[in-house]
């Protein structure tokens, strides 16, 4: 289960904390798993690999968010009970990281020491609702490609190969379908988390409702705009800022 679900090229068995990364819609593990080399020896970085891509290409895509959350939780539970952990998610990955964190808290009383979210509305925000209405069944492949290109982050040479393009469209479609099965209703006085939450966003990306993340934790919430569009985090200078900032937050958590 572990080898299939989690990619960790820079293993650090003596690390004080694990940082688990959750990729964007249509994405794989290579970019975020490679962050491992940018972190100090106190943090071990891994990236979650969902079914239907990379070495899990032959597996059917997950049908809903609950299936993804259950798989990730069951595979990682033992590890997460052993030592402190933090989550980083970008876009679609932010919602998965939130859903997994919520499940861990509600079912096992486990919580990340820090939740880092990027390029995503707070799941309790009105701004999240339109995502549920993206008409996927009727969307033409070309419309999906246009959307993917608007977001940026996919090298244009990928889109020149028909089979790569087809697979990307299919993966993106399935990931958005999963996202549409996710909903979070915040109960009146219930604040789900007590960990700090940091929200990152690209300055040229469309604005996200980040303020509503405040209502999801009794810890601190902070916000950073970094230069670039939706995939600002793929810029090497931004990756360096992110990894330094995340390291500082984790080290300040008093492990």
UniProtKB/TrEMBL annotation:
Domain Thioesterase: 18-241
Gene3D superfamilies registered for this protein in UniProt: alpha/beta hydrolase (3.40.50.1820)
EC number(s) stated in the UniProt entry for this protein: 3.1.2.14
Signal peptide: none
Superkingdom in the source lineage: Eukaryota
Catalyzed chemical reaction(s): (9Z)-octadecenoyl-[ACP] + H2O = (9Z)-octadecenoate + holo-[ACP] + H(+)
GO molecular function terms noted in the UniProt entry: fatty acyl-[ACP] hydrolase activity
InterPro entries from the UniProt entry: AB_hydrolase_fold, TEII, Thioesterase
Family to which the UniProt record says this protein belongs: Belongs to the thioesterase family.
Gene that encodes it: Sast
Keywords, ordered alphabetically: Fatty acid biosynthesis, Fatty acid metabolism, Hydrolase, Lipid biosynthesis, Lipid metabolism
Pfam short name (any one): Thioesterase
Enzyme class: hydrolase
GO biological process: medium-chain fatty acid biosynthetic process
Hydrolase is among the record's keywords: yes
Protein name as annotated: S-acyl fatty acid synthase thioesterase, medium chain
Source lineage: Eukaryota, Metazoa, Chordata, Craniata, Vertebrata
Species name: Ciccaba nigrolineata
Record keyword Hydrolase present: yes
